[in-house]
Amino acid sequence: MQTYRHILLALDFGPGHEQVLERATALAQTEGARLSLIHVVEFLHVDLANELVLPQDVALESQIMATARRKLARIATEIGALEDIGQWVELGSTKQEIIRIAEQEQVDLIVIGSHGRHGLGRLLGATANAVLHGAPCDVLAVRIRPEA
């Protein structure tokens, strides 16, 4: 049976991310695994034809990255019973950055949330599905259920 030594939790800070966090934390405790956190900020689409927009977009991107770093640090502090919590806030393609960090850090398991929108084609959602098919390790897609 597979045991996990290093779990990478991909968080989007959207509704229900607490459910994914709870599942990954419990799994890390059960497995005695190291837990790392990642949040990816997608590139802002910049209109290079309008030079006046560019500085604003760069500043906004920096603010979003700083906010994400604070959120990850707060989450890491809240689950502080687990030692050595790695934290990454990356800028780029969500799928590519999650997979890159998973490979770089020799992760055994990626935990990612899935909203499971309607229909067979949307069982996982675009990001979870892309990570599943490109990951170098196991992937656990945690179904995010609407809060009651």
What is the average per-residue confidence, as pLDDT, rounded to a whole number?
83
For the record, give the distance between the C-alpha atoms at the N and C termini, rounded to a whole number. 35 Å
Task: Output the CATH class name.
Answer: Alpha Beta
> Unreliable stretches, pLDDT < 50, 5 or more residues?
118-123
How many alpha or pi helices?
4
**Major β-sheet annotation:** 5 strands, parallel
Number of domains: 1
Strand content: 15-25%
Task: Assign a percent range to the helix content.
Answer: 40-55%
Q: What fold name goes in the CATH topology slot? A: Rossmann fold
Any idea what the CATH superfamily is called? HUPs
